[in-house]
Amino acid sequence: MPAQNNFCGGFLGAKEPLEPGKLWLGTKEEDILLTERPGSDHYGELQAWDPATGRKAWQHNFRWQLMATVLATGGDLVFIGGTNDRMFRAFDAKTGDLLWEQKTNSGITGAPVAYEVDGTEYIAVQSGWGVDAERIQDKMAKANIGVSDNVPQGGVVWVFKVKQP
């Protein structure tokens, strides 16, 4: 599962009128605050939990926020994007070892999907950063919390063929 750790957000509530067609957050955007836990070395975590024991099996830390969904395949692969370095990654589901990564045109917040055509497995994912990921990234960059503000918007579907052992 994707997780965020070591930074906290908050906002000051304000009566802001709703204007149709405009962003409404229930507060002024400049009143949304982000703070970092002192001594933090990472912000995003990919965690694997054993449902039989209720214990964490492994964890992979990311320096950046992790705004993503995860795809786990029957072949013991875990795919995830969601970081502002624009990488799409594959992990070994049992060990947490990083097996592969590919830089994409943008950050990935969309859900990866697996499908099969004529016995060949493919993984597809849309690369596009999106509003929430971009807003959090911008706030972290302005607060100097371990990220840059250079993730371009996307809108590209990437498809990868899974190589069989």
Can you tell me about this structure?
This protein is about 5% helix and about 40% strand. It has 1 helix and 12 strands. The protein has one helix spanning about 130-140; strands at about 1-5, 5-10, 30-35, 45-50, 55-60, 70, 75-80, 85-90, 100-105, 115, 120-125, 155-160. A 4-stranded antiparallel beta sheet has the order 6-7-8-9, with no helix packed on it. A 3-stranded antiparallel beta sheet has the order 1-4-5, with no helix packed on it.
Order of secondary-structure elements: EEEEEEEEEEEHE
Beta-strand fraction estimate: 35-45%
- Largest sheet report: 4 strands, antiparallel
- Helix coverage percent: under 10%
Salient structural properties:
165 residues; mainly beta; Lipocalin; three-stranded antiparallel sheet
Brief overview, please?
It contains one helix and twelve strands, in the order E-E-E-E-E-E-E-E-E-E-E-H-E. The protein is mostly beta strands and 165 residues long. The protein has one domain: Beta Barrel (Lipocalin).
SSE layout:
Layout: E1 2-4, E2 7-11, E3 32-36, E4 44-50, E5 55-62, E6 70-72, E7 77-80, E8 87-92, E9 98-103, E10 113-117, E11 120-127, H1 131-142, E12 156-161
Antiparallel strand pairs: 1-4, 2-3, 4-5, 6-7, 7-8, 8-9, 10-11, 11-12
